[in-house]
Amino acid sequence: MLLNCYQIELIEAGCDEAGRGCLAGPVVAAAVILPKDFYLEGLNDSKKLTHLQRSALRPIIEEQALAWAVAAVDHEEIDRINILNASFLAMHSAIQKLAITPEYLSIDGNRFKAYPQIPHSCVVKGDGKYLNIAAASILAKTHRDEFMTNLAKDYPHYNWHQNKGYPTISHRKAVIELGLSPFHRKTFNVSDPQLQINFEQE
User: Fold this and answer.
1) Bridge partner list, 18
2) Domains of the chain
3) Nearest Cα to 169, choosing from 149, 199, 194?
4) How far apart are CA 71 and CA 73, in angstroms?
5) What is the pLDDT of residue 190?
6) Considering the entire predicted model, what is its pTM?
């Protein structure tokens, strides 16, 4: 069972991001402040849930959270400042957008650029340990997936409605055959899927 938050003395926001490993689209971060007695059946790390489960949990989180916010950093900014700094920027932007100013931050992962005047702790695999980080992971994931699904309507050849910009075999093949779209991250390398296939056969 996931714990509500990292500590109990201060108003805490859980933070997570989605899309760091993608070839295209933005990185999206969410920050969520939950009530102290919050519990939601099935709430867990977004990666352990199906699309339907995440979609069902999202409106409940958004309705019952004391405050929540989502922010994105686009592919051009990612190319300019690199994906790690873009992830920090997205999380900072989400925190800044919260209707309630948190007094403490619990961050999924092992690295974070300190937010001014708010202490934080980094929690490896925190989205599977704390409800507020899990909630943030679901909001970040579902909002980003929604963006990529809408974008896929104009760029159907890259199959973004299914891969959401992640480097699947079909996505990499499409990039190699068709070139980059205006929404691809130009600083990310696209490996030839055939090289991996040949390696596995050997």
Assistant:
1) 28
2) 1-202 (3.30.420.10)
3) 194
4) 7
5) 86
6) 0.93
